[in-house]
Each structure stands twice: as C-alpha cells, then as structure tokens.
C-alpha cells in the first residue's frame, strides 16, 4: 500500500486507487489487508496526505482496529474521509446458497460457539457436515457432487501429519499444470479434484471455488478446551511447536478461513481420530476439536443432506 500510494502521488494532475480488499485473507508475511492501507496513510508525508481523500464503507472507516483487521483504524485529521455505504460489499457471490457462511466461519474461528450454533440454523440449504472418517467424507462428496458439480479435498499447508492418513502431499502453488488439471479435468482423470487424492491448500485455492469441499483438519490448528481458544502449532522435526507470534497465529486462522469458504454449495469437515501412540496426532486434541466444531453447528447426521 505505501509503495502504491507513493507512486500514485507523483501524478501532477489527479489519480485514483480503487482497492478491493478482502477481510481476513492475509495468509502470509507482507500481507496486511485493510490495516496495511491505514498504516500507509498514517505514515505518508503530510504534504502528500493532504492531497488525498478516502471513500469507503462505514465499517472500513471505524476508528478502532478489530482483531480481524476489518478497518483502516484511526486516520489522521488532515485526511478527508467520506462514508459511502454502497462501497461495503455485503452480498456474497461465492456461497450463493447461504449469505451467512462467512459470518459463521468468523464466529467459529473466534471461538464463539454459542453464536455460531445459533447462526448455523440460518445457513438454509448450505450443509456443513462433520465426520471422523475420510472414507465417509469422500462418500458424502460423491453423493452431493452429482451432474457437473465439482468437488475436492482441501487441507492446510501446515497440516503435515495428514500424511499418516494417506494425504502426504498438497497441491503446490508453483505447479501451474497440476493446478489446472485439479480444477479443470473431468471425472475419471486421476489428476483432477474428483480423484480425491491430493488436497488443494490455502495458497492454491485462495480466490477460487468449487461446488463441494472436504476440509481435512490438521494438527496445526486445534481447539484447546481448557483455555477455550485455538492453539496454533507448526511441525518441527518430530514434534509440534506452539506458535506464539501473533502475526503467524493470524495467518494460520486466516488460512482456515480461506479453506472453510471455498465451497459454493456445501462443506464437510473431516477431523482424523489421531493415534494415542503418536504424539504428533493427539487423539484428545483432535476429539476436542471435532466436538467444538459440532457444538458450533456442524452436523454429524450428514446422510440427511
């Protein structure tokens, strides 16, 4: 943002920056979202800043920075700001079966299980199922994905112990041909998403959608019942290490936000059982995560959908 504003400020007559910024989409270092634009405006030289005016939706111009970085924060007094309600894009085009999906995901990742459970009743025709069996998850996808509907597996790039359950590789962001095969090739092609062999991760599915997805939950994000909060970890060698850095915690939560909002028509969450003899696949923590997601409104009776 700072570089763009500095370059555009060089125009001798006038210019405009049109910024389409998704909330909670920052998944890597250097991605700051709306708060990054606010920071760039605050750091701009006053003589340049006075030449600019900001037009944005009401939530974007709220002075307090939220945990999800959904506002610019408090802006300098010498910067003119105009509230434009029509610039707040509130009608989702991705999950057309339910406008409330993104709000439900936000509540789940915020640990607000009671509110998430209430909102889950408003998801309408958008099913969110949960299972502890990958075989059942694949069966569910096959039943839902009739006709030309596309379905596939998703997994976080940090969910590295899914290898023990047969999912050791995710679709790499630099593998252009493989990505095209995954999203475009028809049923029967082992390279396509229909094969349900290789999951796409947050880097290869951000900004893209398919009709039905199974999110394969990993040990990088687990619910801690004692602290009533998500625990973010990364696998180093033979053990998970707790992530303390707040930015990395935010990136991990946002990665799951991306993964949970890729399906246009329905989502199933697969939480592995783990292994009591494998410290990298903690059964109690995976059980707690599955129970929390169920309490948030994910349905175990997915045969009804």
Write the layout of secondary structure elements.
Elements: H1 2-8, H2 33-43, H3 46-49, E1 53-56, E2 80-83, H4 101-109, H5 113-120, E3 128-131, H6 134-144, E4 151-155, H7 176-184, H8 202-205, E5 210-216, E6 221-224, E7 229-236, E8 239-242, H9 246-260, E9 263-270, H10 283-295
Parallel strand pairs: 1-2, 3-9, 4-5, 5-9
Antiparallel strand pairs: 6-7, 7-8
Short description:
With 305 residues, the protein is α/β, with parallel strands linked by helices. Helix content is 30%, strand content 16%.
Number of strands: 9
What is the mean predicted local confidence, pLDDT?
90
Radius of gyration: 21 Å
Query: What is the overall silhouette?
Result: globular
Please report the number of helical segments.
10
Order of helices and strands: HHHEEHHEHEHHEEEEHEH
* SS class: alpha/beta
Residues in β-strands, percent? 15-25%
Low-confidence spans = none
How would you characterize the largest beta sheet? 4 strands, parallel
What does this structure look like?
The protein has 305 residues and is an alpha/beta fold. Helix content is 30%, strand content 16%. The chain has 10 helices and 9 strands. It has helices spanning 2-8, 33-43, 46-49, 101-109, 113-120, 134-144, 176-184, 202-205, 246-260, 283-295, and strands at residues 53-56, 80-83, 128-131, 151-155, 210-216, 221-224, 229-236, 239-242, 263-270. The strands form 3 sheets. A 4-stranded parallel β-sheet has the order 3-9-5-4, with helices on both faces. A 3-stranded antiparallel β-sheet has the order 6-7-8. Strands 1-2 form a two-stranded parallel ribbon. A hairpin with a 2-residue loop joins strand 7 and strand 8. Helix 4 runs antiparallel to helix 5 and helix 4 runs antiparallel to helix 9.
